[in-house]
Amino acid sequence: MSLENKTALITGGSKGIGYGVAETLLKMGYKVAITSRSLESAKKAAESLSAHGETLGLEADVRSFESQEKAVKQLMDKWGQLDVLVANAGVGNFGSIEDLSIEDWQETIDTNLTGVFYSLKASVDALKKTEGYIITISSLAGTNFFAGGAAYNASKFGVTGFTQAAMLDLRDKGIKVSTIMPGSVATHFNGHEPNDKDAWKIQKEDIGELVGDLLKMNPRTLPSKIEVRPSRPPQK
User: Fold this and answer.
1) Is residue 234 part of a domain?
2) How far is CA 212 from the centre of its chain?
3) pTM of the full predicted structure?
4) Total tally of structural domains belonging to the chain
């Protein structure tokens, strides 16, 4: 499959899963734009990734539809087409329903769920032209609830369901849609600092490899929902 001139937009791509996916796609020959709420972070990550290929660092907030439209326009102005959207940006606010603040609830839903909708909505016209691919990053928390996870569970259950419905809406337009649902990943998520004790966890490059495999798959076949978890988590 020729990847010449193909492009990808990855939300929340300055670190963690988004960075790992960007690195994989660049090595496959894609041109990759990554977004972050911080322009400095986006440009710094893009500069680091540029060793692997052509990159673009963009300031964008998935909680704003206008911001997502602007990011897509900047990519289109530079490269002329969009082939892959990876809707990855997310936050984690945890706590019992008694302690969960209104602000934490709103930030989680606005970022993790509404942000995915805005990202797809802003990209769909460009993706129809290339019969492109949309990949959302949900979570095993998108089908498995846990105490203290009210906001996060709600957002990721929503992403899982939203993505499956979007898949049905868009497949007749030639757009493929999949969601990846990771378990524990060694990233900076929720203020965590990756360390040697994370060796048992999924690594960011593992999710990148999975995205790459989806893009290489014969277009007649669509893995629409993929659960992925550490193979040997610590025994409790």
Assistant:
1) no
2) 13
3) 0.94
4) 1
